[in-house]
Structures are given as C-alpha cells and as structure tokens.
Write a structure and sequence with these properties.
The chain is α/β, with parallel strands linked by helices. It has 2 domains: about 110 residues, no CATH class; about 375 residues, Rossmann fold (3-Layer(aba) Sandwich). The protein is about 40% helix and about 20% strand. The chain has 14 helices and 15 strands. The strands form 3 sheets. An 11-stranded mixed sheet has the order 3-4-1-2-6-5-11-12-13-14-15, with helices on both faces. Strands 7-8 form a two-stranded antiparallel ribbon. It has a two-stranded antiparallel sheet with strand order 9-10. Strand 7 and strand 8 form a beta hairpin. Helix 3 packs antiparallel against helix 4. One of its GO terms (biological process) is lipid catabolic process.
C-alpha cells in the first residue's frame, strides 16, 4: 500500500469509526476535526496517488462516517421507545457495514497492491526512451489495412548517471488501453488491472547516458504472448544497472495491444486464434494455417523474428545518429544478445538461428521451433526453465499446459541445448511457475497460495533469474569469468544447473 492509502484506510478511517461508534468520543469537541481530517485526507490521496478500484471501500467509508457523524450531532430522532429502538437498529447496521467495509478497505489494497520493484544492484542509474519505427519492406499482417506496413513501438533502457534527479518513469505506457486489453484476453473484468498505471520504476525518461564507458553491450527483450514490452522490468532494470542497453519490442500480434503515436492500435489475438499459427512453427502440419488471406507454411514465428533483424538495422542507424540526441555512439552492436520469455523466447531462438549479429541467446520456459531444433544454434545459449514435475504441479493447481505441451517444451529445449556449437547452460528451477518468469507474479502476495505463482515465491524466482541472466551475458558479451556458470551454487542450491562445452 502507498503512504496515503495506509493513512486513510488504517489510521484515519479507524479513528473516524471509533468516533461515530463510541458516544464519549462522539461528544468530544475535537470529534468534528477527526471527520474533517479524514475527508481531507481522502481528497488529497485521490489526486496525489491516484484513485483505484481497490480503494472504493475506503472512499465509501469516509463518506459514510461523515454522514453518520452529522446525523448524530445535528439531527434529533426523538426520545420515544420506538425512535430509540430504530436508532439502535440503524446504528447496528451501520456498525456491521463499517466493520465489513474496514476489512475490505484494508484487504483489497494489500492483496492487489501498487507494487514496487527491488532496487537494482548495479552501479548505474537507469534512463529510458521510446521510439516508433516502421519497416517499409513488410506488410502488417495483423491489420485489416492491406497497405499498412509493419510498425514497432520500441523502448530502450540504458545506463544513466546517478547524479541526475528526475521523476520515475511509469511502468506502462498507454496503461489504460493495455491493461484493458490484457484483462479481456485473460477474461478478467476490464478494470481489474488498471492500478498498474501507478506502479513506479527506477528509470527516468531521457536523462543523460552514463559516461563510465564509451559504449555498452546491447540486449533485445521479447515479450510473451498477450503481454507488453515492460513485463520483465525486474530483469531489465537489473541488467541495465550493470551496464547493458536493453531494447524492448512491442510486437503487434504478440502484445496485448500496441498503441502508436497517431492513435491507431493493433490488438493482440487470443491464444486460441494464435495457436494454429505458432504450432505450425513447432510441429508443421500438412494443413497450412492462414491469416487475413496469407498462408504461413512455416508458421508465424519467422515473421516475428524478422522484427529482430529489422531492430538491429535500426539500432545501427540510431548509433550513427540518434534523433533524440541520447544514444549516438553508445550502442556496442558487436556485442549484442537477446532474451525472451515464453513466446518471446521462442521468437528469440528463431532470431538467433537466422541472424548471426546476435552473439548470445537466453530463452525462458518455452518450446523451440522445428527449424531451430533441426539447424541448431551457433551462439552460446542459456535456457531458464523448470523440471517437468513443476510444470505438472502448475497444471494441477491452475490448469496450465497440457501433457503434450509439457513434453514438447522439455524435449525441444533439450534437443537444441544438446547440439549447441557454442557454450550451453540449462538452468532448471524447481517450484517456479511460468508466471514467475515475469513481473506478473507480483500482482498479489497470494499468487502462490492460489496457484498463480509457484511455491518458490516471486522474490526468490526473480533473484535466481537475475543472477543467471547477468552471469550469462557478462561472460559472453563482456568476457568476464563467472563462477556461477561453472557448476552448482551454494547461494542457489535449489537450482538444477547443467553446462556443456562445444
């Protein structure tokens, strides 16, 4: 809970309840000031911290207590037996409603909090800037406009000077549109995730790039299906704080919704509609799927992987001249890697297979495309996933993946790992569920209890992911010696770690 939320829900409303419930307190001269302060506090909290639906019981209580206090102080209900009995009934009902309301007003903001990210451990501050790029060589297949070219919204996070103070960047851009799209795709009420627009980050918009180094290695991040480009902020901020420039892509067709500067949007497709298109990339069928009149013989994954090659071209141009005057000469594209979660990991593997400019590939908890299994990867690769037993546990608790999907994920990851021509690392985290690979397990502290997060807990899952991600890229993009990649670790004893040399 945020500071003013705590003051309103736990302190002010509790005191106001006691004032209206206890006759001696109600009769005190200062009781009116308590009610007034509670009302003012609610009025201040809304514009300063922002309203959210989880706070509705607190707002209603504030108004209810003020109304009851006014009635008690200034309205005569008469002294007859019937009037007194009626007042006792009303007072009892108000007390019951107040107690229920107090419980809800405290519980809802705690169970669905405006969460914060742990402070990154690296020496750099974090800056961020967003670009809109158009690939005029390709048509946008997820638009009904046949003449529209492929467009991307691209967010860059970069090492920044820590001595520059600036307001934190919001977690999500176009949050109202994106959270509504996510909620609809996941079959939640439209308003369910609207509080994510208040989540703070450790990044600041367009602050100066740190001058500790002439340039920094580049990492491209790919989101999961029906996700958004900021969905792994816990991981992005940690990497940037250690001297990486991270480039997050919002890919139309993958993201829940992509909003462009001219106002047009490309909404994501439900998994049921996307599944035939990406299944064709995993296990090609004779009946080739089509979408919007276009045939996808090899599935949709290669189409999304082309976004990565286009991004590398754009980054090279940006490195020559950044129109925003920030990143010119700061991108070390000779040391470029990629990481993706879920569907993004699948696309990342395809991008690595197709584009040798990527020199390190991290894939998280997803099956590998058929042609990647066939051709293998030339780059060093790391997989962060969990054993099949944990996947089955997730399925038992939340419905999760079907048995065939579990088998396909495990066998294809292992197949590509076993034939790597560069260094390989297979990192399994027992007790980690799929959602724990993203920020979304932070939505509620009850996530593990209701099966939306694994028994390992989000904090530990994120610590492990960050440690192994950083070690992998430090070794293969910065040339550092990393003890963590040599074998089992005392600090992460639950991890099942494997490595292979070419």
């Amino acid at each position: 809970m945020r500071p003013l939320e705590i003051l309103l829900t736990i302190c002010a409303n509790l005191i106001a309840f006691l004032v209206v419930a206890v006759p001696r307190l109600r009769a005190a001269r200062w009781s009116g000031y308590v009610i007034l302060i509670t009302f003012v506090l609610a009025g201040v909290q809304v514009p300063l911290e922002g309203p959210r639906w989880q706070m509705v019981p607190a707002y209603v209580l504030t108004a209810l207590f003020a109304l009851v206090w006014v009635v008690q102080r200034f309205t005569s209900l008469g002294k007859g037996v019937k009037q007194e009995r009626m007042w006792r009934i009303v007072a009892g009902l108000v007390s019951v409603l107040a107690i229920i309301g107090m419980a809800l007003s405290v519980a809802l903001p705690i169970l669905l909090p405006v969460y914060s990210f742990p402070r990154p451990s690296g020496p750099y501050g974090i800056g961020t800037v967003t670009y809109h790029w158009t690939d005029t060589s390709r048509r946008e297949v997820f638009s009904s406009d046949k003449n529209r070219h492929r467009e991307l919204m691209v967010q860059v996070w970069y090492p920044a000077r820590k001595d520059v103070s600036s307001a934190p960047a919001p977690y999500m851009s176009d949050a109202d549109t994106v959270t509504t799209a996510i909620a609809r795709l996941q079959r939640f009420p439209d308003f369910f995730l609207d509080h994510l627009k208040y989540v703070p980050t450790h990044a600041a918009v367009t602050v100066p790039v740190a001058d500790n180094s002439p340039h920094y290695p580049v990492l491209i991040f790919l989101e999961g299906l029906t996700g958004f480009r900021q969905m792994n902020t816990f991981q992005v901020e940690e990497l940037v704080s250690h001297g990486y420039i991270v480039v997050g892509l919002d890919q139309p067709g993958v993201a829940a919704s992509v909003v462009f500067p001219d106002g047009h949007q490309v909404a994501g497709l439900p998994k049921k509609q996307m599944q035939p298109l990406y299944n064709q990339s995993l296990d090609p069928a004779k009946d080739v799927p089509q979408w919007e009149g276009q045939t996808f013989k090899d599935g949709i994954i290669s189409y999304f992987a082309q976004d990565v090659s286009f991004t590398l071209d754009q980054l090279a141009a940006l490195n020559r001249r950044d129109p925003q005057g920030l990143l010119t000469g700061k991108l070390d594209l000779e040391h470029a890697g990629i990481f993706g979660v879920s569907f993004g990991g699948m696309v990342a593997s395809q991008a690595c297979e197709a584009d040798s400019r990527l020199t390190a590939c991290l894939m998280m908890d997803v099956a590998m495309p058929a042609n990647v299994v066939k051709n293998g990867l030339r780059q060093p690769g790391m997989w962060i996933t969990r054993p099949a037993s944990t996947m089955l546990l997730e399925r038992q608790k939340t419905g999760g993946w079907q048995g065939q999907e579990i088998e396909q994920t495990q066998t294809t990851m292992r197949a590509v790992y076993n034939q790597l021509t560069g260094d390989g690392y297979f990192v399994q985290v027992p007790g980690m569920f799929h959602i724990d690979c993203t920020d979304l397990d932070l939505l509620s502290p009850l996530s593990p209890a209701v099966g939306l997060g694994g028994p390992i807990g989000s904090q530990r899952a994120h610590e492990i992911i960050n440690a192994y991600s950083l070690a992998f890229f430090d070794k293969h993009l910065k040339g550092k010696s990393e003890v963590l990649l040599e074998g089992s670790s005392v600090h992460y004893s639950e991890v099942i770690f494997e490595k292979r040399r070419p």
